[in-house]
Amino acid sequence: MDEDSLQGRADARHDLGRNLTRGMLDSLGRAIVVGRFEGRPFPTEAEIAKAHGVSRSVTREAVKMLTAKGLVSARPRQGTVVEPSSNWNLFDPDVLRWLMERKFSVDLLRHFNQLRIAIEPEAAALAARFHEPADLATIRAGLHRMEAAEDGNDDPLDADIAFHVAILRASKNPFYAQFQTVVATALQTSIRFTNRIKGRSANIADHAAVADAIAARDVDGARTAMRRIIGDVLELIASRPEVEA
Amino acid sequence: MDEDSLQGRADARHDLGRNLTRGMLDSLGRAIVVGRFEGRPFPTEAEIAKAHGVSRSVTREAVKMLTAKGLVSARPRQGTVVEPSSNWNLFDPDVLRWLMERKFSVDLLRHFNQLRIAIEPEAAALAARFHEPADLATIRAGLHRMEAAEDGNDDPLDADIAFHVAILRASKNPFYAQFQTVVATALQTSIRFTNRIKGRSANIADHAAVADAIAARDVDGARTAMRRIIGDVLELIASRPEVEA
DNA sequence: TGTTGCATATAGTATGATAAATCGTATACG
DNA sequence: CGTATACGATTTATCATACTATATGCAACA
């Protein structure tokens, strides 16, 4: 692409961002997730370093981070190997992002929402029991943003995400809070999918019902109201097995 | 160990296992989770290296793995800082283990099971829909191990874990499969707690009900049967707010 | 035929030097 | 006096190189 090519020098640093290690992590992570090393063996430290024109330290630290996320494992003499995807830490934001950046998959979207329908109704129920005043304010703020988005005064996707994230946090259970990334990713993906299928106007009433139930400390009401929201999405996906990228 | 000790050198390598980086990761991870750097600043690379008698490479790679798990973040001149625990990747097996190794906490146990009551009933429902013959065999094998444990021919805890894990995997949703670690950890912890409170004999009937419902592809039956199992545990915890370590 | 031992490839560790980024402070300027 | 600019110091980031540990496979040997 630039002068480096003329010398045939292996210097691919422009691919990686300002932070070389971080860039290498991203590059390798994406490559693994798209299955580039399926038949092939994972390259050795020296090969990676040479191919990307960076030092061995950088590649080592990137590979270490991949091990920390469960994508690879390394042993002397045997080399570094890609772990089966069942060992990948799917709730890691990076891993999740790499999964989304590859070819769009309805399966993944369905799996996302199968998870959401377990988590979010229960999170709403917990929120109804344990929320504090500040949480309620945040939830209602999300709702108002959704209404504002109706008139084009806010981004509907951001507003939707803010609402759901607020409920996860209001559950006062740190494990539920972890799903922020998953939910955000799921929503960002589904928007591509459900984009113009139907207006999201009716949805606001459903969301308001959740907020009201939580405010009223109605545990079962919050759960069923939230279940309705996700259930709608899930049906939408199920009814369209085929999809355009 | 050897002559090095005679020189009074700072060599704490005996604390770390065979793999220095891995040992350092463990050491630092535990220290962070127990809050050893709450008021204090996180030590610099050079300090860690000197304190543990290892090279900077080792400490750097360990710290990189910690950042990959969300425990710390590092920037030049500013140093390395411990992230707020809301950024920790709680579903990482290492992080989960460090959390358990510290002082026993009823809160944590409650949070575990609040999560389980969302995940596992839905996993059972999905398993009823999507399981394959091999999954059913694995589930039943877990059940048989529980029965064997009744007569002292197997470890009851391992058997219980095997059963629950089998259902997570039978859901055919990779996100649910991720909870294996959480469930295993939760069970290993609760056993300490519920140990002698009541016999686990009645429990086998409940577990068998789940297996039967899954086999019969009874989606709702599987869900409610599983809900009963976890609900029992949750009540048990709620009824005993105080606990001995 | 089986076992031992050696050569080799690869990740692991050590060391020291340089680069980059940022914070605090001092200094110059308005 | 206040504000902006320049400099210095600290810490991570990167590089380069050497050496160690470990496991694999082959070959010599009993």
TrEMBL record, chains A, B:
<dbReference type="Pfam" id="PF07729">
    <property type="entry name" value="FCD"/>
</dbReference>
<keyword id="KW-0804">Transcription</keyword>
<protein>
    <submittedName>
        <fullName>GntR family transcriptional regulator</fullName>
    </submittedName>
</protein>
<dbReference type="InterPro" id="IPR000524">
    <property type="entry name" value="Tscrpt_reg_HTH_GntR"/>
</dbReference>
<keyword id="KW-0238">DNA-binding</keyword>
<dbReference type="InterPro" id="IPR036388">
    <property type="entry name" value="WH-like_DNA-bd_sf"/>
</dbReference>
<dbReference type="InterPro" id="IPR011711">
    <property type="entry name" value="GntR_C"/>
</dbReference>
<dbReference type="Pfam" id="PF00392">
    <property type="entry name" value="GntR"/>
</dbReference>
<dbReference type="GO" id="GO:0003677">
    <property type="term" value="F:DNA binding"/>
</dbReference>
<keyword id="KW-0805">Transcription regulation</keyword>
<feature type="domain" description="HTH gntR-type">
    <location>
        <begin position="18"/>
        <end position="85"/>
    </location>
</feature>
<dbReference type="GO" id="GO:0003700">
    <property type="term" value="F:DNA-binding transcription factor activity"/>
</dbReference>
<dbReference type="InterPro" id="IPR036390">
    <property type="entry name" value="WH_DNA-bd_sf"/>
</dbReference>
<dbReference type="InterPro" id="IPR008920">
    <property type="entry name" value="TF_FadR/GntR_C"/>
</dbReference>
